[in-house]
Design a protein that fits this description.
The protein is mainly α and 298 residues long. It has 13 helices and two strands. It has one domain: Orthogonal Bundle (ABC transporter involved in vitamin B12 uptake, BtuC). The protein is 71% helix and 3% strand. A two-stranded antiparallel ribbon has the order 1-2. A hairpin with a 2-residue loop joins strand 1 and strand 2. Helix 1 packs parallel to helix 5, helix 2 packs parallel to helix 4 and helix 3 crosses helix 8. The termini are far apart.
Length: 298
């Protein structure tokens, strides 16, 4: 690596990792609430970006108004997904629920293609795009502000979980479903709330990513980079989501900045690096950095 460019790659990776952290939060939230790894999170992200684009392109709305409307629809969509697709599977083997999220991802992919087409679009910028120059580091202002918005969203959700009645109810249900029901909490209602919030998180991340790379079907693949982040931080850890997301973003940027032989350049090593990292984490620490190892006594 050209070490003069190291601060540039580090800063870019850190900003991108902030968005990965927010995506990872949605995955952690669903897992904590229902013990299900949501493979449809990336497709909810993609759909949110396409809906925002549709409001701006076909209705002529301001991008921020379209963003707010997409968040409102995301709440409804998340609630419907839980009510229609997942609630009937309560009490069934966990594999059935996981397969349902995989099926849901393909349904969302097909619906998006049928409704909006498969070609790339441009979303009006949420933020100015002029560069920020900090010494030898040049950063895109829209990427920096997207990072700030992602971290702000992360803080809001953390405060929600710690200090609101609904957030505390979700944390209680995450610990023990039967115990939560015994004190009068409605676990199915909490599941619906968790999916609604995860859908909102996905939409926010989708719009932030679309402002950087455009509105396209591959946004769902970008969201896959949050999986190594979740596994590194711990499937049940909200702080682990931010640590894992930032780590994956920095790793992707630094590996992508390494000098590469032309024959290897087509492999896109920066895109592969997070998944190699995931394999290493699973090998040495399968519970993640902040994950909990549960011990069951007979």
């Amino acid at each position: 690596m050209n070490w003069d460019l190291f601060p540039q790659f580090l800063a870019t990776g850190l900003l991108t990792g902030g968005i990965y952290s927010l995506i990872a939060l949605g995955l952690v939230l669903i897992y904590k609430a229902s013990r299900v790894f949501n493979f449809a999170q990336g497709h909810l992200l993609m759909l949110g970006a396409f809906i925002t684009w549709w409001f701006t392109e076909n209705l002529g709305w301001d991008v921020w108004l379209a963003f707010a409307a997409a968040i409102g629809l995301a709440i409804i969509a998340g609630w419907l997904v839980e009510r229609v697709a997942l609630r009937p599977l309560i009490g069934q083997p966990i594999l059935a629920t996981v397969m349902m999220t995989l099926a849901l991802s393909q349904v969302l992919q097909g619906v998006t293609i049928l409704a909006f087409g498969a070609y790339q679009r441009s979303l009006p910028y949420l933020f100015p795009i002029q560069p920020i120059v900090l010494g030898d580091i040049r950063l895109k202002l829209n990427l920096a502000l997207a990072f700030v918005l992602a971290m702000l969203g992360f803080i809001i959700f953390v405060l929600f979980f710690r200090f609101t009645r609904a957030g505390l109810a979700m944390r209680a249900a995450a610990e023990d479903h039967q115990l939560a029901q015994s004190v009068g909490l409605s676990v199915p209602r909490i599941f619906g709330m968790a999916w609604a919030i995860a859908s909102v998180v996905a939409t926010v991340c989708g719009v932030l990513l679309a402002n950087i790379s455009g509105v396209e079907l591959t946004l769902s693949l970008i969201a896959l980079k949050a999986f190594p982040a979740v596994l590194f931080g711990g499937l049940e850890s909200i702080p682990g989501a931010i640590v894992g997301g930032l780590t994956v973003g920095i790793l992707e940027s630094l590996v992508g900045g390494l000098p590469q032989d032309p024959a290897l350049r087509a492999l896109h090593l920066g895109d592969i690096a997070p998944y190699v990292f995931m394999l290493i984490v699973l090998w040495f620490r399968p519970d993640g950095l902040f994950g909990l190892k549960r011990i069951e006594r007979i």
